[in-house]
Each structure stands twice: as C-alpha cells, then as structure tokens.
Fold this sequence. Notes:
Blueprint: E1 3-9, E2 26-27, E3 30-31, H1 32-42, E4 48-53, H2 58-68, E5 73-78, H3 83-93, E6 101-106, H4 114-123, E7 129-135, E8 142-143, E9 149-151, E10 159-168, H5 169-179, H6 190-197, E11 203-207, H7 218-231, H8 233-236, E12 246-252, E13 255-261, H9 272-284, E14 292-296, H10 303-308, E15 313-316, E16 325-326, E17 330-331, E18 333-334, E19 338-339, E20 346-350, E21 353-357
Helix pairs in contact: 5-6
Amino acid sequence: MKNIAIILAGGIGQRLGEPIPKQFLKVAGKKVIEHTLDVFQNHPLIDEIAVVSNPYYIQEVENIFIKNRYSKLKKILQGGKERCHSSLAAINAYDTGEEVNLIFHDAVRPLVNDRIISDCISALDIYDAVDVAIKTTDTIIQADDENRIIGIPPRHFLRNGQTPQAFKLSVIKRAYELALQDPEFKTTDDCGVVYKYLPDKFVYIVEGELFNMKLTYKEDLFLLDKLFQLRSVSLQNTGITVLQDEAIELNYGDECIQLIGLNDPDFSERDSFLSESILEAKLSQVNISDGFTILLSHRPEYFNVYQNKNIDLVLSGHAHGGQFRLPLGGGVIAPGQGLFPKYDAGIYTENGTTMIVSRGIGNSIIPVRINNPPEIVIIELNCG
C-alpha cells in the first residue's frame, strides 16, 4: 500500500514569539521544515510527500521544493486556522477512492528518525491508527479552575504524545466525518479524533524518542541546535572530526596550526545583526592562539568579524559564486548579501586576514548557474 507523508506546516508559532512561523526558522544551517523533509525524502518506505502550509507561506514552501529538488514532494496544500483543518485538507486531497496510508507529522519535529517512521508503517499492517509516544517521567497533576489539585493519575499509564500519527485513509476520513457532525467538536490531535468517534478502532502506540521534540518556545531553537550537534557524533566514529564552535591543533614538525570550526549562526534570516552578534559570541568563546589560525565559517559576509578576531585564513562559501556571473562584473546575487555581493568567490585580503570563498557545487533558491561553473578548492599550506 502507498505510504504518503503529510507534513503539517500550517502553524503560525504564537508561543515562540517570532514574526515568521517557526517551521521556517533556521537551526543547524537549514530551515526547520527542510530538516523534516530531508528525513521523509530519504526514507525508503515513503512513496510520496505532501506539505500542508500556512497559506501566506506557500511560496516559501515552493522555494524550498525548488532549492532541494525533493522528488517525493507531490502536493503543497493550503492549511486552515486549526490543525484539524490542515489534516482535513490532506484527507480531502487524497480521497480518490484508493486506500493509502497517511503518515501525519509536525514540520517542527525535525529530529524524527527512520526507526520511528518504519515502526509506524509496520504497525499499519495490523492496526488502522497509530500514535507515537514516550513514557511520562514527571508526575502529572490534575487541577481545577481555582488551581487546586483534584487528581494525580498513576504515572505508569501516562505517555507524552509525539508525531508521526499514521492512519488508513478510510479510517481517518470516517472519523472526521463523524466529528464534523458534532457541534461540540474540538481537537488538536488526529488520533484523538479516531479514539473518540471510532471507539471500535484500537490506536496502537509506537515508542517514540526523547529527542523527537517539538519546536515550541524560543529556547527550543538552541536545544535543537545542540541535538543536531550530537547527531554528528556518529561521523566522529568514522574518523571524521566535526568542529562545533571549537578548535583543534594540527602539528607538523615544529609548526602548529589552529583550526577553528563554527556552526552557522543564522537561526532566522531576517535579522543579520543578531546573526553577527551570535557569531562574535561563538568566536569569543574559542581560545584563539597567537599562532597561525584557520577558520572554517560558512558566511563570508561577516569578514569584518573575522578580521577583528585576527584570524589568518578564513575558508568560506555560502554565496554560490553569486549564482549568475557577469563577464566583467562578478556575481549577481548571494544569500545574506543580496544583489551584487561583495564576497562571492575568490580570495580577499584585508587587515592581515585572508578569506577564500569557494563557489561550491550547489545552488541556492534558483536551481541553475550561469557562467558560474562549480568548483572544489584545494589549498596547499607551506610551512616555514
């Protein structure tokens, strides 16, 4: 049976206190929704993806689709005011008479893993509705309107719900048909609709993961960033050194080079001053040596910061060579720099700091280069 992932991205993120929806904020170098889409795009059991978006950000989703070339993303749907409206948009879009599995997932849970998705799909071979949850570790207190305890449920019966939530299309469709006939209908949870309106259907629980967290509050951005860093530990087990806002020393004979690696500071594209401040703070936490220093930093537009920290050599990219290069005028546009970027490709030296900006091999939002061949830069360092 066809497995279709429904990425719910219709929220506006009021609790986060940001001017743009949280699924479009950046963490660990990508928009949150991009991390989520990557997981489902690369999962071998997912046949198709649909994104249900806030109507004002459908163009943003289309840009993400073009940039990343998600081959499984087939539909971009308009969501509604409440989560149930977004779920209904997906149900109606796939209500063609063919039975399929719908796997609903919050766009703001980017750390979902292959095991959870596979377990949900496997459970649909037996059950018609599947939830994901983890055991509750805190004591849950039930209170009345006057903030008085009226009950303490036994903890071993309680779970914290997560996503994905997976269903046979015919089952979730029927549950919502009954729910919409109820004038008192309210829900924030699709499994809750099945549980209430189709009581003969068991909702099976797949074990979730603690790190499959939902981005809800501003502090969660920094926590997510750290969790993505922990994911990179597996790379280290293969002999690859991952520098996450830290430095190492490379020794050759009597010579010593300090190599510094920084995470991308841009948690949200709208505020370049905030990004620059975060980057400066990151560099300030690194004990920069008096010897020769090499900095690996994604963003060339902050060359002045690197100079102020007396970095000898900066290796950067991000500008994609300006995307389109004029014969005599350089690049046309670059992320973070806009039209006719100052630092698009090549070598720049100011105040004792040299920066090499690679054109790289990828694209930005527009998936084409003009007069701008990809490149991989090889640097030879001579000691003495």
